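2024-03-11 09:14:02 INFO queue: dequeued item Ketol-acid reductoisomerase (NADP(+)), len=332
2024-03-11 09:14:02 INFO validating residues
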Amino acid sequence: MAELFYDDDADLSIIQGRKVAVLGYGSQGHAHALSLRDSGVDVRVGLHEGSKSRAKAEEQGLRVTTPAEAVKEATVIMVLVPDPVQAKVYEESIAPNLKDGDALFFGHGLNIRYDFIKPPSSVDVCMVAPKGPGHLVRRQYEEGRGVPCIAAVEQDASGSAFALALSYAKGIGGTRAGVIKTTFTEETETDLFGEQAVLCGGTSALVKAGFETLVEAGYQPEIAYFECLHELKLIVDLMYEGGLEKMRWSISETAEWGDYTSGPRVVNDQTKAEMKKLLGEIQDGSFANNWMAEYNAGLPKYNEYKKADQDHLLETTGKKLRGLMSWVDEDK
Ligand code: NAD
Ligand code: MG
Ligand code: MG
Ligand code: MG
Ligand code: MG
Ligand code: MG
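2024-03-11 09:14:37 INFO prediction written
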């Protein structure tokens, strides 16, 4: 069984007694920096000169300095720059300024799991990963709630690294919702698998294939869009609230019968065999190595895939229809 931790299990004064550097001010960075500050923690944000995020962080009342300076000042360093640049930021700004007894924190385990970053044995290495997008992490905190987090310790130099991680999680509201103890390996592998097989990759491919099947059979793209993409949100909301059972309670008996009989034909043994293959490539490091190679080559295939999907009829149809529904928020 998973070990769960709540507000009463975490001591906020631990993180309040440290100086924290948050490197990066994107989706997660802004949420961590602002909420830690509001929890009475001494925070500085580390951003390179010329970063567009600098003005935003300062406007929101935070002190901004360079990543190197932030690491020098702080004893807890949270790395929230994009995963593919973390190793470079580590080499250039973190490693030269890291001191014995410091704690290095991550919001995702990729660089530690695949050894792109190898911290010295004299520092704590921890993870606090909210299970939700950064903007929700911040909003929930402001509303007195929190997004559940998972926390892990890869290296416990101080002997009290997990208590420090829990304290940090409390500072961003995580222990209000619950923190689950994990490992860098479990978090990294399940996160990559989830986004590839189900949440992003699997869902995008399912929606596109369904849409294309209807349009190729001569149905109107607008009808296909509503059926295969728009309604998905309503179904997922029901699953989120009450699992498959609540979703099936709400849909018609006809839809439920089709769910049981046709779902396993679409996502079948072959699909599951492919999922196992994906998981194998995540576990043996080949996915991470290929992704880093693509990133370092300037993202040629990534940009090709992105462009192809932007021009897909599903997307152009959706853009037009969402424009007519004023309540559907296109804000990023
Ligand atoms: P992001 O892309 O939203 O923001 C990255 C920030 O880093 C920006 O402020 C950018 O200006 C800054 N940056 C870029 N290059 C830099 C450099 N060389 N030096 C200093 N700063 C630089 O990133 P994100 O989505 O918040 O992801 C940060 C981490 O959090 C990643 O490890 C990610 O896996 C993890 N994470 C993200 C989410 C999410 O909701 N997006 C959820 C869970 C975990
Ligand atoms: Mg320091
Ligand atoms: Mg490792
Ligand atoms: Mg994830
Ligand atoms: Mg991820
Ligand atoms: Mg329908």
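2024-03-11 09:14:37 INFO annotate: The chain has a mean pLDDT of 97.
2024-03-11 09:14:38 INFO item closed
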